[in-house]
Write a structure and sequence with these properties.
The chain is mainly α and 296 residues long. Helix 8 packs across helix 9. The longest helix is centred in the first third of the chain and has 26 residues.
């Protein structure tokens, strides 16, 4: 019995590729990314700022490209450049929103288009086609110990930051005008939350690239919204969805020899489509299942 069980476990490990160090590092990276990115994605969705995550993922590209220009594919330079680029774009969008007739979403749209063009231009002039694809689409299978340390630090910082800013962040999701009227924490919470978005995108782009990083934020959050009404269960479902979806996408990409990041994002998209049908708050269930009435 024990021999049979050991044989099945060995077969499972072999089929999943976990006998290789790079696959174990990639699997751990998927879990760490889920712990940080998924809760941030839920709050982005509840604040109606999901597209802002996409804008910010492009905003980090020129900073990362400048880091690459200076130091090549050296992780600290890429991370620092991407973080500074994202924070600069967020600050500029806030200034434009306060001092012009543009709203923050419109300012971000303009800035992220310029950032994307500038980043691609820098990478195209300085690097090769392979380097450009690596930054745009990432390579979770190429992560080393330094990359895992960055992901772990970002996940820990995100959990700590959300715990510190929890009350103002939740209140801002419900009634931002009330928060601004009764507390000075509103502005600090907003800027702190933008910083959490940026550092999670910087961490994610190491593994999934700037074009795919936001998928691990938005898709699990959108799916979780269909399965849970309350915020805490929604956060738990989003983290679980992101982790399992990323691990399943990692295994599928390994087995089928597909690119990892697009496979993960598409698999999360398939689960979102299934949630529209199966979830209690999904479109199909809401239309087809008759409402329950209380009986005396």
């Amino acid at each position: 019995m024990d021999g049979g069980l050991d044989g099945w476990l060995a077969l499972l490990v072999s089929a999943s590729g976990l006998e290789f160090d790079f696959m174990r590092r990639a699997a751990l990276a998927c879990v760490l990314l889920a712990l940080g990115a998924a809760p941030v994605g839920v709050l982005l969705m509840l604040r109606r700022m999901s597209l802002m995550g996409d804008a910010m993922s492009h905003a980090i590209l020129p900073g990362a490209a400048l880091g690459y220009w200076v130091a090549g594919l050296w992780l600290p330079a890429l991370a620092l450049g991407g973080a500074l680029g994202g924070l600069l774009v967020a600050a500029c969008a806030g200034l434009l929103a306060r001092h012009t007739v543009l709203r923050e979403d419109a300012a971000l749209a303009v800035l992220y288009l310029l950032s994307l063009a500038a980043g691609v231009l820098i990478l195209s002039v300085r690097g090769t086609q392979v380097d450009l694809l690596h930054v745009l689409f990432g390579s979770v299978l190429a992560l080393d110990e330094a990359g895992l340390a960055l992901l772990a630090a970002v996940a820990a910082a995100t959990v700590a930051g959300l715990a510190l800013l929890w009350r103002p962040l939740v209140l801002e999701c419900v009634d931002p005008a009330f928060l601004r009227g009764v507390s000075r924490w509103g502005a600090w919470a907003h800027q702190g939350f933008l910083a959490l978005v940026v550092i999670n995108l910087v961490a994610a782009f190491q593994a999934m690239g700037t074009l795919m990083a936001v998928g691990l934020m938005v898709l699990p959050a959108a799916s979780a919204r269909l399965w849970a009404r309350r915020l805490q269960p929604m956060l738990a479902v989003a983290v679980l969805t992101a982790a399992l979806g990323a691990l399943a996408g990692l295994w599928l990409s390994y087995a089928a020899e597909w690119p990892t990041s697009p496979t993960i994002v598409l698999l999360l998209g398939v689960w979102y489509a299934a949630s529209l049908v199966l979830a209690p708050l999904g479109w199909w269930r809401q239309r087809r299942v008759p409402p329950r009435h209380l009986k005396g």
